[in-house]
Specification:
This protein has about 260 residues and is of the alpha+beta class. The protein folds into two domains: about 140 residues, Fructose-1,6-Bisphosphatase, Chain A, domain 1 (2-Layer Sandwich); about 110 residues, D-Maltodextrin-Binding Protein, domain 2 (3-Layer(aba) Sandwich). Helices cover about 35% and strands about 25% of the residues. The strands form three sheets. Strands 3-4-5-6-7-8-9 form a seven-stranded mixed sheet, sandwiched between helices. A five-stranded mixed sheet has the order 11-10-12-14-13, sandwiched between helices. The chain has a two-stranded antiparallel ribbon with strand order 1-2. Strand 8 and strand 9 form a beta hairpin. Helix 1 runs antiparallel to helix 2, helix 4 crosses helix 7 and helix 5 packs parallel to helix 6. The longest helix is centred in the first third of the chain and has 25 residues. The radius of gyration is 17 Å and the shape is globular. The termini are far apart.
Amino acid sequence: MEEHKLRILTKEVTELARKVGYFVNEEIQKIGEQDVKEKRSNDFVTYVDKASEETIVQKLKNLFPEAGFITEEGTASEEKEFMWVVDPLDGTTNFIHGIPSYSISIALRRKGETIMGVVYEPNADECFYSWEGQPAYLNDKEIKVTASKTMDDSLVATGFPYEKDETIDSYLKVLKDILMVSHGIRRLGSAAVDLVYVACGRFEAFYEIGLHSWDVAAGAFIVQQAGGKVSDFSSGDNYVFGRQILASNSHIHEEMLKIINKSM
């Protein structure tokens, strides 16, 4: 895809993400217990997730009919050379509890490589985005990861896996080890937001296990375009589908991997 076409497409996707974000915020006052369904233990879905995804998919089909889809709620799932990866509401648990940290996440991949990422956080009206060959932006201003060189100058974000299996004890051990050597840990509840906060310098790193492609594809790309580094826990590149991710400002990446792999 030519650069100018990708740039125009990115602009249209940011406008779509904003539109969906406005809808999500309008619905937060209307959500009741009867509107919340549990897909699996502590993993929720609402009519807002589904309506948002339907809107996104239909618009993306119109914008770029050659692309297939990976979507959280299964609205569309067709494999092609170009693939949209869509999370219509990342942070549903926050949303149903009225906690203002959730987002819309949309990525475009070509032959297995991400070439565009858009994450919109509607509560702060912050739209993070980038496309192939370009820097990362927040509301039209270029953003960069921080220059912090060590863990003791770093603030780290994480999330907790839905599956409370045998990994939880080792995960908590990593949490303790990071707390001992850093400015602290934050858990916001939206992986896409955590990732773009690394990209714009609010966090030095984010790590988590158990995530899906729609949680991380857009945000991870934006981190990279902002000068950061993203990997799985083996320092490889299987972080979109491998269900484990570490994103950092690049300077503390190896230090983070050592802490994680000591216990995980």
